[in-house]
Known about the structure:
The structure is a single chain. The chain is α/β, with parallel strands linked by helices and 340 residues long. The relative contact order is 0.14. It is globular. It has a domain at 13-200 and 230-258 and 312-322: Rossmann fold (3-Layer(aba) Sandwich), CATH 3.40.50. The chain contains twelve helices and eleven strands. It has helices at 24-33, 70-73, 79-85, 105-129, 165-184, 203-214, 232-244, 265-276, 287-296, 300-307, 315-321, 329-339; strands at residues 13-17, 37-42, 63-66, 90-93, 134-138, 187-193, 195-197, 217-218, 229-231, 252-257, 281-282. The model is unreliable at 1-8 and 48-55 (pLDDT under 50).
Amino acid sequence: MRPPDPIARPARRVALTGASGFIGRYCAPALAGGGHQLTLLQRAATAGPEGAPVAGVPVAGARVVAIGDLADAATASGENLVNALRGCEALVHLAGRAHRAIGDEAEALALYRAHNTLPTLALARAAAAAGVRQMIFASTSYVHGHVTRPGQPFSSDSPLAPSGAYAISKADAEEGLRRLAPELGLAVSIVRPAVVHGPHPTANIRALLGAVRRGLPLPFAAIDNRRSFLGLENLTSFIAHALDNPPPPGAVDAWTLADAQTPSTPEFVRLLGAATGRKPRLVAFPPLLLRRALTMAGRAGMAESLIDSFEIDISPVLARSGWTPPLTLAEGLRRMAMAD
């Protein structure tokens, strides 16, 4: 990605997948508000006033094109996708299957590849055939792994070492784009967000926010780790920046993103408390026993996300992209709490 040009670029005609998802519901209106003309690629052509996506968030001037299920479109001839993308200059691909426990590892990997890997590569081919010259792909920071060691954070320069079907499917999509981009002449930016927080959060962040608001005791005071997060506003800001600053045709940039701050789990809970105006009830409980209890309850993934470290160093992004996060972690959490 080149540093920002001193003169703003004109608005672009941008195709977007995943407009009804957690990220897309914020990203689509933000990009439209920045002057971009959006084409929302969705399963069905359902749209509300002013071209609202399925989730009902107004997107001024947006065009909605029905493409059916992306997993099915990826195995079809591709003509439907090519037609949907005609007239667009860039594609932002946010859609995909997120973390869900499904079947054994082999079954899960096949399903995730069908929803995350194959559609991404099909969209790249269709975009090039339709005359689109830029693609932004939302991957995940978990392509580097799920745990970091003290003093050894992940960054954009870290190798791919995915574990788990979801991360493997995203890493496979990244590697496929690296092979395809030179052949297609497509400028590709890969965005690898940390765990995203924002209005109406999901999963563990939503559970923690609810627990803090209800004053429930949380046994995290003895945990000493570092966790990276990424505000939805910061992620959307980077996507807009990437649209204005693509790599050269046929090249691929990859950016592992997070907020600048990396709190411990108890520090994160205290930030949630400050955002909600409630003092969290943190109590000390041995992390080893907490891990065992959660694992025995079938929540090993939750234990990992609460107890282990997952730290991202964004200095390569700051040094090479010309972008800086517009919001601090504390401000992002405050906005999340106000909206929820």
